[in-house]
């Protein structure tokens, strides 16, 4: 069995995907790299095939009709032969030293009777156009180099989220929880992380900066104007998160609190994007979202509406919208995420 399967969703990625694939090759025969050509119309598929030819037994090129990022990840999960599973977007890359260290850790897990469910590490925002670099740590939340359950979590800090860039899941866990992401939808990485969390019993945090997340490519999904244009897809994911998991059914208090915190963060982003659009149609969509949360579960509504991140969202009218936009830009400046 392979130790680690990488899923690399690719759509018209020919001009930049080499850096990503080349950064994954040092894993050698212990890894498989699934290049998912999601209906590309450029030379992505041709390049994927050339990697498969050059590295048989390591690289597999999979071609499919275009279904979006979620469809590519679904295919990766279905086809993966590795004990562990990691998504790496085709414009991102990984740090070699951190990679080899993590691979050693996963080898140790593979020898256990019950391998660890989730491995966590840091990631780095790489904003190459400005030279901005921001390392996102999980050390405030989790002890280092220890196999723990959720009760071993150090603390829960609003805004510190386990993003796709930080997580490696045990592949069998993704199969067992029946994860299937929606097609033709951006921002499904939130669902990819959020839904399996209730199935995670053991986790391990390694304090290395593994994943390098490129920020600044034109048309990137996290660019502010792109997010405004795609607000319906952001909202679709937000609604799906509300429907998929009931945090109040989770008995473990650390995990329950974390799930609510994660949902609050995504809902605040949805709300801020609606406010940033300055479009009354989108204001109505945001009002509908909060009403849906209220009707769905009033405990969740109050937890989100009156949480630290949701503070600015509780005010009505123009002043509340300005305050919401202010806090969004403050987070944007601090983190550098778009």
Blueprint of the fold:
Elements: E1 2-10, H1 17-24, E2 31-38, H2 44-54, E3 59-64, H3 69-79, E4 82-87, E5 93-94, H4 96-110, E6 118-127, E7 132-136, E8 147-148, E9 167-170, H5 171-176, H6 189-194, E10 203-215, H7 224-229, H8 231-244, H9 253-277, H10 280-296, H11 298-305, H12 317-335
Parallel strand pairs: 1-2, 1-4, 2-3, 6-10
Antiparallel strand pairs: 4-9, 5-10, 6-7, 6-9, 8-10
Helix pairs in contact: 8-9, 8-10, 9-10, 9-11, 9-12, 10-11
Verbal overview:
The protein has 338 residues and is of the alpha/beta class. Helices cover 43% and strands 19% of the residues. It is built from 12 helices and 10 strands. Strands 1, 2, 3, 4, 5, 6, 7, 8, 9 and 10 form a 10-stranded mixed β-sheet that branches. The radius of gyration is 20 Å and the shape is globular. The model is unreliable at 334-338 (pLDDT under 50).
């Amino acid at each position: 069995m392979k130790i680690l399967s990488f899923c690399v969703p690719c759509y018209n990625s020919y001009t930049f995907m080499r850096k990503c694939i080349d950064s994954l090759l040092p894993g050698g025969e212990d890894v498989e790299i699934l290049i998912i050509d999601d209906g590309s119309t450029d030379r992505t598929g041709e390049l994927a095939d050339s990697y498969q030819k050059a590295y048989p037994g390591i690289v597999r090129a999979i071609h499919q009709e275009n279904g979006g990022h979620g469809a590519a990840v679904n295919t990766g999960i279905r086809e993966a032969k590795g004990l562990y599973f990691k998504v790496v977007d085709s414009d991102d890359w990984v740090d070699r030293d951190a990679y080899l260290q993590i691979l050693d850790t996963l080898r140790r897990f593979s020898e256990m009777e019950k391998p660890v469910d989730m491995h966590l590490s840091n990631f780095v925002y790489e904003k190459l156009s400005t030279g901005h670099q921001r390392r996102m740590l999980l050390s405030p939340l989790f002890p280092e180099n220890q196999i723990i359950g959720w009760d071993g979590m150090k603390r829960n800090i609003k805004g510190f989220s386990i993003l796709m860039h930080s997580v490696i899941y045990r592949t069998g866990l993704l199969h067992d929880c029946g994860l299937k992401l929606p097609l033709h939808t951006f921002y499904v990485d939130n669902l990819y992380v959020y839904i399996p969390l209730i199935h995670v019993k053991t986790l391990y945090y390694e304090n290395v900066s593994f994943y390098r997340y490129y920020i600044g490519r034109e048309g990137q999904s996290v660019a502010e104007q792109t997010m405004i244009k795609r607000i319906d897809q952001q909202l679709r994911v937000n609604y799906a998160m509300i429907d998929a998991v009931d945090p109040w059914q989770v008995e473990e208090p650390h995990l329950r609190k974390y799930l609510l915190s994660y949902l609050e963060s995504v809902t605040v982003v949805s709300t801020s994007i609606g406010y940033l659009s300055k479009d009354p149609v989108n204001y109505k969509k945001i009002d509908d979202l909060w009403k849906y949360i209220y009707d769905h579960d009033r405990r969740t509504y109050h937890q989100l509406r009156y949480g630290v991140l949701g503070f600015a969202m509780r005010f009505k009218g123009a002043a509340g919208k300005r305050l919401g936009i202010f806090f969004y830009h403050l987070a944007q400046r601090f983190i550098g995420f778009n």
